[in-house]
Amino acid sequence: MRVLDGLNHNDYDVPFALLYTVTESEGAENASSHPDATPTATKCCVFEGSIGVPRGHAVSPDRLDLGNSDGFLTPAFRNATRTLEPMMLSIKDNTLPQPLLDVIEWRGYKDPCREAMVLPLRPTNADNVCALLLLGINPRRAYDQEYRSFMAMLNRQIATSLASVLLFEDEVCRSKQAAEIATLQREQMSRQLQLQTGRMRRMTELSPMGMYLFDPDGLLVEANDRYYEMTGVSSTGDKLPWSIDMMVGESKKTAQEMWDCTRRSVAFICYVY
């Protein structure tokens, strides 16, 4: 639609315009399996906007199937999609359908066009046509070299813009996929952590040893029932911070070394025998 917005102010050099996007048709899968199918046979054109041409008319339907012969503009659109080259339509050879000219609300000089150009719009250096733009030729000006240069420049500008848009959309798509993958990985890691935590909890509950976990500040995070039985500490009362006095005998030195080494960054796990 931005393409039409840019052309709408030029009443004389753009007597009328039609814009269709090119997409895969619903029968693309069946057509692709047919040995005689052509690439354009699986394409369809979807109406995006117009200048001077009413929407929904027989010459400007909401949808054109390039695999069918129906439609006043279907042959021209199909050829432009196949050749990837601009195509001139003229009333002289009946390639510019008269029914189209009959319904146009003429702009500029109000004179009907005798020629129109189909521009297959595609990103720079790409072989896939994204849209088709039908432009009426100024009826009071010859289609000379200067006019050809204008059409070529318009085609290049649209191709460059399309390439930028598609690159941006591709980057957004990749970023979205990366975010989705990261989310799935976090969910998977969370499930694995929950599984490991559950296994550790079951192990500590069945262990004949007293097992407990302190955070780096020395506060008791959790402990098994055997720990509370051996220490006489209440599981529902105030939880005392870790102290070297909790250890006995030769265990004090080893426990202190472990505590000094790990308390800065990780929790401290120990066992009571």
Short description:
By secondary structure, the chain is α+β, with helices and mostly antiparallel strands. Helices cover 40% and strands 19% of the residues. The strands form two sheets. Strands 3-2-1-6-5-4 form a six-stranded antiparallel sheet, with helices on both faces. Strands 8-7-9 form a three-stranded antiparallel sheet.
Key traits:
273 residues; Beta-Lactamase; six-stranded antiparallel β-sheet; three-stranded antiparallel β-sheet
Structural account:
It is rod-shaped, with a radius of gyration of 37 Å. About 40% of the residues lie in helices and about 20% in strands. It has helices at about 1-5, 30, 75-85, 100-105, 145-205, 225-230, 250-260, and strands at about 15-25, 45-50, 65, 85-90, 115-120, 130-135, 210-215, 220-225, 270. It is an alpha+beta fold and about 270 residues long. It has seven helices and nine strands; from the N terminus they run αβαββαβαββαββααβ. The longest helix has about 60 residues, at about 145-205. The strands form two sheets. The chain has a six-stranded antiparallel β-sheet, with helices on both faces. The protein has a three-stranded antiparallel β-sheet with strand order 8-7-9. It folds into two domains: about 1-175, GAF domain (Beta-Lactamase); about 195-270, Beta-Lactamase (2-Layer Sandwich), CATH 3.30.450.20.
